[in-house]
Amino acid sequence: MLRPKLPGLPTLRKALGPQLRLLPVVVILGLTSAALEGVGIGLIIPMLSIIAGQGDTPDMGGISAAFQQVGSGLGEGQRLLFISAIILALITLKNVLAFSNTVLTTFIYGKASHSIRSALSEQLLKVGFPFFLQQSPGRLLNIISNESWRASDAIQTALAAMVNMSAAVILLAFLVFLSWEMTLLVALGLALVQLAHAALSASLKAPSRSVTSRNSELASRMLHLVHAGRLIRIFGQEAKEQAVFDAASDAVRRAGLVLQVRQGALPPLTEVLHAVLFLGAVVGAWHAGVSFPVIVAFVVLLYRLQPHMRALQMSWSQLQGWSGSLEEVRWLLDPSDKPQPPQGAAAFHGLSRQMKFDDVTFRYPGSDSGAAVLRSASFEIRGGRSTAIIGRSGAGKTTIVNLLCRFVEPDAGVILVDDMPLNEIDPTQWRSRIALASQDLELVDGTILDNIAYGSDLATVIDAQRAAKMAEADEFIMNLPQGYQTIVGYRGVNLSAGQRQRIALARALARDPDILILDEATNAVDGLSEAAIVETLKLRANRRTTIVISHHRSTISFCDDVVVLGGGRIKSAASLAKLASLSMDELYEHETSDKG
Ligand SMILES: Nc1ncnc2c1ncn2[C@@H]1O[C@H](COP(=O)(O)OP(=O)(O)OP(=O)(O)O)[C@@H](O)[C@H]1O
């Protein structure tokens, strides 16, 4: 009866994973408990015959006659007790099996829900970074926090549908055995009810998608309120923001109302149609001259069948109502239309000579019509030296970092590492040799120690303290009441911007990387602390490769080389010592013919 295409079925099947092999057990338990129920109801026939004083009603055939034989050798009183005992035993056993099935389906549901959440997290961790440049965080948040739960609910509903389907099949079989004519009538009626139900359920898909997209918009507004708290207040936008939020929230309410009203119309409608069917069957049976005990058994069976049929139909409409959610979850889990993570299998054991940008052109995804950020850029960053990358705002400095870290890949040209194309190197091995401290690289919610140790295997607080000392962070950390155990809060809100930067720098230094990249990593640090940090970096620079991006002359003062970016090109690449006399503004304009 539920043949039409089930929305999101592949997603559900994938989520069930190894639990799929438990589904036959669910079905067998469902069939068995329904069979026990059917037999129990069938035993009403001899019971009623005894009570009505009809003895063995002669005109019965098939399964009714078989039921009629139960306890036939006993006296009436004893037979009544005997049949009652069997019915009680059957009811008890049926409920034990039903309970076992509830436990089993709950177990499967829990596992499948976990697997959906885990798959979503895995996908977010695995997907190529450009995905995050293209997608709205609100949409992603909504999928993780809302839609994934609906997908889990869909699994529970699908499992319940299987149990109900099993019960319906068995009870229908008993009905056929009791009276195939009456069953034919009932089946015809049920098919009509199902058709009406399916037509109405199909109209739930559009409102379901609308609810999903409104929820995404609302999640974006919520994120905005959380992240832009200061901005909203200082510009006095509270009333406007409230109005925008209310509009988004009300849009969710309206879309939800349409969906729920349509869904809500289905149960009463189905109940009325079932009642018509029920009464029609009774009247029909009376006209056909079916015996009283058989009519009662038939009606009781039909009565017991009805909730299963209704539940099946409800499951169907619920799954239609969640189709928007299932589509969103399926979309996020589908890798085919997502940017791939960086590839490459060659081993990397450390930089010995240089990193070379050879004719690299790059444009951000989604900005195809706009100008390229880098156009045929060629320059070298020599190993074991420190290189400043400078240029006016928007020149493409951070883009170079993104390319080096393989967050994005060049559209044309190649980046060579010791003459090997970077895209052939195993990205995990490559990144394990890099540490990045950047103005927009977040702190994690945890202690200062957690943050410094993030990404390196620091054995002790002493190790963390060594890194913190190099980043001029130890002193302020020790002055905090909880020291290294101080909780930094979400994105480090409990700390000042300069403190956050010094912890991020300590985190990068703790990795003791081959290649240290500092992208505006100290622009919020006071001059004195910055001077001390620069001294530390100078000492370190003799051993390791360091790339520094900054608009401050003092920050790049210790660098050996400088690469100047402008208008998507490399304007100049030279030894910084040769340009020592130039101010920052003069450096930005400096142009050499040999950019080597
Ligand atoms: N995610 C993105 N999508 C589209 N364009 C982007 C994206 N990120 C940066 N850009 C564009 O790329 C150009 C270079 O940006 P980039 O961040 O590399 O500049 P920058 O030199 O580091 O600037 P700043 O000194 O201001 O930090 C800019 O024009 C910017 O608008």
TrEMBL record:
Residues 355-592 form the ABC transporter domain. GO terms for molecular function: ABC-type transporter activity; ATP binding; ATP hydrolysis activity; ATPase-coupled lipid transmembrane transporter activity. The keyword RNA-binding does not apply. Signal peptide: none annotated. Pfam families: ABC_membrane (PF00664), ABC_tran (PF00005). GO terms for cellular component: plasma membrane. The chain crosses the membrane at residues 21-51, 80-109, 158-178, 272-303. This is ABC transporter ATP-binding protein. InterPro entries: AAA+_ATPase, ABC1_TM_dom, ABC1_TM_sf, ABC_transporter-like_ATP-bd, ABC_transporter-like_CS, P-loop_NTPase, Type_1_exporter. It comes from the Bacteria. Keywords: ATP-binding, Cell membrane, Membrane, Nucleotide-binding, Transmembrane, Transmembrane helix, Transport. It is a multi-pass membrane protein. It is found in: Cell membrane. Residues 25-321 form the ABC transmembrane type-1 domain. Belongs to the ABC transporter superfamily.
